[in-house]
Amino acid sequence: MHALKEVFVAAEPPELSTAANAAAAATPAAPVPPETPPALASATPGARLARALRAHALSVTLWIVSIAMLLAFWYLGTKYKLELYIRFTNIPTPADVLQKLIEVNQSPKFMTNIGISVRRILIGFGIATAIGVPLGLLIGRYRPVRDLLLPICEVLRPIPAIAWVPMSIMLWPNNEASIVYITFLGSFFPILLNTIHGVQSIDSVFIRAAQCLGAKEPALLWNVVLPGAMPHIFTGLAVGMGVAWVSLIAAEMISGQFGVGYFTWEAYSLVNYAEIVLGMITIGVLGLLCSGAIRAASRLAMPWLTYSNAGKR
Predict the structure, then answer these.
(1) Do 128 and 188 meet the contact criterion of CB atoms below 8 Å apart?
(2) Cα–Cα distance, 112 to 223 (Å, whole number)
């Protein structure tokens, strides 16, 4: 057999042998799939959670330090009754506010006020989102719609939400509807304008590419325009939520009978300083929770940003 093989090899023309070797050299090797590191392959959910906690340990530590610095400044100012340019003479101490928190939680009145304010925020902000985002997509995408509706929005936008309180009382049949309307106005315009800006900032190359692939206008809006504008939309939602809380508290102070704003204003009328500070802290915590919910929703709605921002520090 070896002798026969040598005969065939010897009989093969040199040019064919050279061409076969060149073709074999030019043929790319099959890619070898990367092996999963043993540490990752054998990692349990608990181990992955521990790695995530270690990765965010610095951020959590800085958050705690930030809040601790604010509390320390408050404590030292009230303990030593500082009177530099600002005066801490009548400001309650953190212990006084904590004691007041324990007192107000002994009755359901305080939690009722919180629940009413949260309900008003959710209704007003939800209506503003349901109207502002689609309207912003249409105004940003179509010039006739922009020419028709944007002037109206630009005329109404500079009017502060608090200036609408007397008009809203006349427009709506009860105080509850008027307060929700004020909350809606406070959040509507930031959501609308950020959505418009997001649509107009989309690269036209993406629009033309989708059109070349045969995408119709509804598919174009849903698959190209909306995802492209989504970062700006969530920025508008975050800004709108902050303005919504400002508008709600002002409306509750002026015309409300329930809510955190009414609770804070009533405490001011009764010269109850600890309840004033408690109301302010409650507003801040509720606003922080709402903003955190919007950030969490943005991460769920835009998972691709997790990878694009992975290298940023």
Answers:
(1) yes
(2) 42
Distance, in Å, from the CA atom of 109 to the CA atom of 67, rounded to the nearest integer, reads 28
- What residues contact residue 270 under an 8 Å CB cut-off, 6+ apart? none
pLDDT in tens, 74-116: 999 988 888 888 888 888 999 999 999 999 888 888 999 999 9
* Residue with tokens 């009722």, as numbered in its chain: 112
Q: Running DSSP on this structure, what letter comes out for residue 163?
A: G
3-state helix, strand and coil shares in percent for the chain, rounded to the nearest 5: 80, 0, 20
Closest CA to 246 of 175, 185, 294: 185
The first and second tokens of residue 185, run together, are 């106005």
| Domains of the chain and CATH, by start | 59-91 (no CATH), 94-308 (1.10.3720.10)
pTM, rounded to two decimals: 0.77
Whole-number Å distance between alpha carbons of 65 and 57 = 12
